[in-house]
Design a protein that fits this description.
Blueprint: E1 6-10, H1 15-31, E2 34-41, H2 59-71, H3 76-79, E3 83-90, H4 93-103, E4 108-113, H5 118-124, H6 127-134, E5 139-143
Parallel strand pairs: 1-2, 1-4, 2-3, 4-5
Helix pairs in contact: 4-6
Length: about 150
């Protein structure tokens, strides 16, 4: 039997991530595992003159926003009985997810995938694909219109 004690759910607050959350919560309940929620904040590095009159949020504002959203990502009923930890990091999403998994002995990563078209994939790549290629543990990807668990 595989021992799954730590599950990582990268959270980007998207629809595919909502679907992946259902899988991660169900698996965390079944394995009595700790569920780690991780939001990666991509710091803005591009200077645009139009932002002179509209300042970008500070690093602390990004962190506060992430923490509030993470604290409310899983409702109380869904998370009842689970050990849930929320975290945020700054940097490229795929790198931070992989580093977090390494640093925290994650046994399984559950993440949503946007399923973008070929053109967008060639231009931008896929965070999920980069994580799958370099992950130190198994990765379960969930498409937003894929099958969901059926509870008896």
């Amino acid at each position: 039997m595989i021992a799954v004690k730590n599950i990582l759910l990268p959270v980007d607050f998207s629809e595919p991530c909502l679907k992946a959350t259902q899988y991660a919560v169900t698996l965390a309940h079944r394995f009595e595992a700790t569920l780690h929620l991780l939001h990666v904040i991509e710091d803005p590095v591009v200077y645009l003159p139009m932002f002179d009159s509209y300042p970008l949020p500070t690093r602390e504002q990004f962190e506060t926003y992430a923490q509030v959203r993470l604290d409310n990502w899983i409702d109380l009923q869904q998370g009842e009985g689970l050990h849930i930890e929320s975290h945020y990091r700054h940097g490229p999403p795929h790198t931070e997810v992989i580093d977090f998994a390494d640093d925290n002995r994650i046994d399984l990563i559950v993440m949503g995938t946007h399923g973008r078209g070929v053109a967008m994939h060639l231009l931008l790549g896929s965070v999920a694909e980069k994580v799958i290629r370099r992950s130190p543990c198994p990765v379960l990807t969930v498409h937003s219109n894929g099958r969901q668990f059926i509870h008896p």
